[in-house]
Design a protein that fits this description.
The chain has 149 residues and is an alpha+beta fold. The chain has six helices and four strands; from the N terminus they run H-H-H-H-E-H-E-E-H-E. The chain has a four-stranded antiparallel sheet with strand order 2-3-1-4, covered by helices on one side. Helix 1 crosses helix 2 and helix 1 crosses helix 3.
Length: 149
């Protein structure tokens, strides 16, 4: 099985590890405005920020996945001026709603970018979007690392 082929499971809450349960609680606090920031939310649920960031794009409440089509993409990009804005332009033009963006500090001319997207309003297929993204000159690699659709 390739790295991009991920399996998904429906699991009862009581069998999830505590860190995943607390990540879900922190995400809900942020969504409902009961926490002003990630730092505030993780403090309230007694969770480390590193654990929150480890699980935030991999664990979702069932109702969220059912009503939204979520996908997380990981990119290896050449570090050039305007690459992120061009990447986001292509994603937005496909009808995706960009939920989160995380970019590493470029090192040795390369940067990693992770995008979480709601694909519910896409006008074409995800495969079409991936083809367009891979065709960009500065994109070295695109991987699907999460798919809640």
């Amino acid at each position: 099985m390739e790295k991009t082929d991920k399996k998904f499971f429906l699991v009862r809450e009581d069998v999830l590890p505590e860190a995943m349960q607390k990540t879900l609680a922190a995400k809900e606090m942020i969504e409902r405005g009961k926490a002003d920031s990630v730092w505030d939310a993780v403090q309230k649920v007694d969770l480390s920020r590193s654990a929150f960031y480890k699980y935030r794009d991999t664990v979702f409440p069932f109702h969220t996945v059912v009503k939204e089509k979520l996908i997380t993409l990981f990119f290896y990009l050449e570090d050039r001026s305007g690459t992120l804005s061009e990447l986001l332009r292509v994603v937005a033009s496909s009808g995706c709603n960009i939920l989160t963006i995380h970019q590493t500090i470029p090192m040795q001319g390369r940067a990693n970018v992770t995008l979480s997207l709601n694909t519910g309003e896409m006008t074409r297929s995800i495969d079409h979007l991936l083809t367009r993204l891979r065709a960009l000159e500065f994109v070295e690699k695109v991987e699907i690392i999460g798919n809640g659709a």
